[in-house]
Amino acid sequence: MDISKAEDTELLKEIGRRFEEKASSINEMEFLTKKLLDLNEKSKNAQEVKSQFLSLVKNEFNNPMSSLLNISSMLSQTKNIDKINTLGDLLKRELLTIDFSLKNIFAASEIEAGEIGNEYSKISMKEIFSEVSSYFENLIQDKNLTLSLVYNCEKELISDSQKIYLLLLNLVSNACEYSYNNKEIKVIVECREKSFQLIVEDYGEGIKEEHCKDIFNRFVHYETGNTRETAGLGLGLSVAKGMCEALDGDIDNIECGEGTTRFIANIPYVDEKNLDLSTAFGSNEFMFDSDSDEMVEF
């Protein structure tokens, strides 16, 4: 536009248009700047998480690995049966410590990568509970705890048994670590209208209100030193939450007074008619019969 020949109204319109363009450019620059700052903050947080994770892994695996090397050396040098049995028990404890940490590291990496598909099957909560009880047998004995199952569900449950197993494994581990000695831990299975509930109840220090939500975040530790002896990786409850969410469920915790803590996982029911192929917990496999819509166990 030739400004020298423009009328006042046209000139005002042109000035207004240019102001709008400038304002739009400024807004776009502000948006891009904010986005860059956000990305920079996320990158910084990611580096901090990475450093924290590597430090935790180093601490978590260093002692068990040293113990395993020492135990294996002692085993090779002794022929005393009693000593062999004692060393064998120590070996099992250290291997379970490493196995549990690896289970959670692998699960956390799958959750982070979004590679956590479901394999549905008919499940037995009693069998899963038995597996979990056996896994923590030493810890239960050390603190003289009682682990019991209260099963209030008549429905046939269909879910991903491996995720339910890992969910219960972490909730029971958490309960064992934070329970007072000589107390009871209850695992309760309840059937609701649209979901079944997996409840783990323990009696210990309880959780302060300000920590109730944060404990489900990765690498978060809540401890006073009164019940928990080791720091751990801080992945357990975040993995439990990830397992629930992968099954379209949710998890929360409540204080029931006098140190009683309940973790409640709600897992929606699954209709087997919507399934194509499943692998059951353990060795059983389920497939659809070609002549019907029913699942057949092999």
Structure explained in plain terms:
With 298 residues, this protein is an alpha+beta fold. The protein has helices at 8-77, 81-113, 125-135, 137-142, 161-178, 236-246; strands at residues 121-122, 146-152, 158-159, 184-191, 195-203, 250-255, 260-268, 277-279, 285-288, 295-297. 50% of the residues lie in helices and 18% in strands. It is extended and about 105 Å long. The strands form 3 sheets. Strands 2-4-5-7-6 form a 5-stranded mixed beta sheet, covered by helices on one side. Helix 5 (161-178) runs antiparallel to helix 6 (236-246). It contains 6 helices and 10 strands, in the order ααβααββαββαβββββ. 22% of the residues are buried. It starts with 7 loop residues before the first helix and ends with a strand.
